Amino acid sequence: MQLGSAGLVPRRGGDVNLEGLLFRVAKTDLDNRAALECRFRGYRKYGFRDPEDCRDEYDAYATQYVCYDISAHNVVGSLRCISRTRGPLETERYVNISRWLNSSMVVAEPSRFSVPSCRRSLAIKLGLLKIAWLDSINTGHTHFVAFVKKCAVPMYNSIACRPAPVPTFTHPRLGGKEHIVLYADLSPHSHVYAQTEHPLYRLFCEFHSNMELDHD
After folding, report:
1. How far does the chain reach from its first CA to its final CA, in angstroms?
2. How far apart (Å, rounded) are the C-alpha atoms in residues 216 and 213?
3. H-helix or E-strand spanning residue 125
């Protein structure tokens, strides 16, 4: 696996500081509204009219994650994750992934990543990916599948994603931009990071008290 690319991975584990941020599963109406509003701030460039216009059918069974700036009391990042055990992935609307998935793979799809302009965007992005990764493992998932624009590939490479053996596609709701399908095996990450002394080891594999995984 390729671990790290394009300067998105910190040089030392301590370079990504999650202090002052709270990452949680969205479980209240306030959380879910804030997640949608944050998504709109990041996605209105694609022509969405308002936060409600950003909603789609996958939100009905997706898990939403939010990042709060504790001192400012506002949401500064959001991400959703769709479990294939609850319904089709958004990726499946555009490409056939069933040909290379096997019956032992329990797949979750992180998508609608939104971190509007912020000086701590790297910490927010990696923190959201960490909580989605932890929650997906805790709920029995074995793999991530994600579709991303080319410019986002390095960040996903940094958490050991690699290209899926399927074609690229253009997304009609996201500006008609070309998207690449990536996947990652979730289960061995802690061993991979520990054995290679990868700088994300501390971030992804050490305990952080500001990760709230409770769904209730």
Report:
1. 36
2. 9
3. helix 121-138
